[in-house]
Amino acid sequence: MRIQNQVKKVVAVHDLSGMGRVSLMAVIPILSSMGFQVCPLPTAVLSAHTQYPDYSFLDLTDEMKNIIRKWQQMDVRFDTFYTGYLGSARQVKIVEELITRFRRPNDLVVVDPVLGDNGKLYVGMADEMVGEMRRLIRTADIITPNLTELFLLLDRPMLSVAELSDRVLKESLKALSDKGPEIVIVTSVPVMDNPHMTSVYAYNRGGGRYWKVTCPYLPAHYPGTGDTFTSVITGAIMQGDSLPIALDRATQFILQGIRATFGYEYNNLDGIMLEKVLHNLDMPIQVSSYELVE
Ligand code: PXL
Question: Closest by alpha carbon to 231, among 272, 259, 264?
Fold first, then answer.
């Protein structure tokens, strides 16, 4: 009887930021509490994420190669590859090599193409990263761009709220999936005529169905919610959930995190108070709100 590898391993390629609950500081607690072993491959070490007015930044591009080489010598096996904020455009090739060397037929590759938000690249994000990310998503099974990243990856101008019909979104998701990823999930889609709601759209090429989850929008922007969202999606899919159930769990968890934080007088840059809601990941979903988009 094989009793090894009872806990699935997920290699997490993200930065470590001291302040702000982004990247590894969201990925590690969420995936650990969902029952997976997180193996971090840190891309950079920052004093704080890049939306704070000032921060230090240590690029770990060269060290990543050393870590991967040692992992190869140790003959480690990963079940999931999950990438997020990369510290330099050169890291894209390194990540592609990691995936090529270690990926086995049933492994899952999740790429969160972190580039920007609100129609702009993040401060410090190299312009070349957009072209590199367009290539990296081709190797992924699942990608989770926000609306800004969706249009950057498609190399199309950003659309206004009035232009974001179900038809346009479906076509955009399919166009991105045609480049490689079987599942494309787009977050932070505003709802036409309703500023109090926000949607997530998803497309699964195997089956050809589109899904939508709409939830209340609290008017506060918290960095790191994208990392939190994709971490819950990754954990839910690794646990065997269907795509719409994974979407429900992730949107519900984000909403719980925002509600746990919103009532305090608080600096939103510090992110949602994950610590207050992490235990909710053990609970079955409370309300199911996914819809099929036809
Ligand atoms: O959550 C995205 C993210 C991740 N890592 C760093 C960031 C940001 C967004 O600002 O600055 C360092």
Answer: 272
d(CA 38, CA 9) in angstroms, rounded, equals 6
Question: CA–CA separation, 84 vs 43, rounded Å?
Answer: 9
**Per-residue pLDDT for 4 more than 80?**
no
- Give the Å distance between the CA of 117 and the centre of ligand 1: 10
Taking the C-alpha atoms of residue 287 and residue 206, their distance in angstroms, rounded to an integer, is 26
What CA–CA distances, in Å, run from 89 to 28, 62, 69, 95, 127? Answer: 24, 12, 20, 11, 9
Q: How far apart are CA 223 and CA 73, in angstroms?
A: 37
| Ligand 1 and 23: CB distance under 6 A | yes
For ligand 1, mutation pick of 16, 56, 85, 187 (most atoms within 8 Å of CB): 85
Q: Is the shortest distance between the CB of 122 and ligand 1 below 6 Å?
A: yes
Check if 64 has its Cβ closer than 6 Å to any atom of ligand 1: no
- pLDDT for 201-222, tens place per residue? 999 999 999 999 998 877 779 9
Model pTM score: 0.97
Please tell me whether residue 199 adopts helix, strand or coil conformation: strand
What is the C-alpha separation between 99 and 64, in angstroms, rounded?
Answer: 13
- Return the half-sphere exposure (C-beta side, CA atoms, 13 A cut-off) of residue 135: 13
For the chain, give the number of residues.
Answer: 294
**CA 142 and chain centroid, separation:** 9
Task: Tell me, using a 6 A CB cutoff, whether residue 117 lines ligand 1.
Answer: no
